[in-house]
Write a structure and sequence with these properties.
Length: about 220
């Protein structure tokens, strides 16, 4: 993650999970609610040949602005016109419902709890620290596992090698540190693929151990 004019470049990723029938989307990016270099999810979906009408479920890892605002396109239209389920971590429902720009979705939001399944192959896993309800999603298919881990790691160039380093925007830095170490251990020992909101694009890879920390190997 290089520096540009003294600032870190931060990738912002969302992940579409296609079961062959419909698509569940984990996080939605920031739309036009943050920096002008972000909010390109509609273009990315188009490039991936993913029709937004097939996205019936949207689930959030947490409710920070770079994860939720993509519900609404920059032109004001709904990002996902066939949306049937909108899942928000239960401890953050009030936070989501305080976002005025997303008022049309406030009553549609349903609570998401650890252990809850979005489908037969997608399970929510508690990962608090970065935010009170921060959630990962374990996706299983064909004997393989992918862990969509949200904001577990923000600065890949630093936090794999030194996972004890906290991030300024972690709501509870001690808890975030403990969660990061626990899940990195799990991902490395289980040889799972991982997908992170702030891993360098495309944001998917594997974690392995080093003598002092971990290494991320992009796929």
């Amino acid at each position: 993650m290089p520096l540009f004019d003294g600032a870190l470049r931060l990738s912002v990723n969302a992940f579409a999970i296609d079961d062959g029938h419909e698509i569940a989307l984990i996080d939605t990016g920031s739309s036009n609610a943050w920096h002008p270099t972000m909010g390109f999810l509609p273009r990315a979906l188009s490039e991936a040949k993913i029709a937004v009408d097939r996205i019936r479920t949207v689930a959030f890892t947490h409710t920070h602005l770079d994860h939720i605002h993509g519900l609404i396109r920059p032109d004001g239209r709904d990002g996902f016109p066939q949306l049937a389920r909108l899942l928000v971590p239960r401890p953050e429902l009030d936070m989501f419902r305080s976002v005025a720009r997303l008022s049309r979705f406030h009553d549609r939001a349903e609570p998401l709890d650890p252990g809850q399944r979005l489908s037969a192959n997608i399970e929510a896993i508690a990962a608090p620290g970065h935010e009170i309800g921060h959630t990962c999603f374990r996706v299983t298919s064909g004997g393989e596992t992918l862990l969509v881990w949200g904001d577990l790691v923000h600065v890949p160039s630093l936090q794999f090698d030194r996972p004890e380093v906290a991030w300024e925007f972690d709501a509870n830095q001690d808890q975030a540190r403990t969660t990061r170490l626990r899940i990195l251990d799990l991902a490395a020992d289980s040889a799972w693929c991982v997908a992170g909101a702030h891993l360098d694009s495309p944001g998917v890879g594997k974690v392995s151990r080093t003598e002092t920390g971990f290494r991320f190997e992009p796929l």
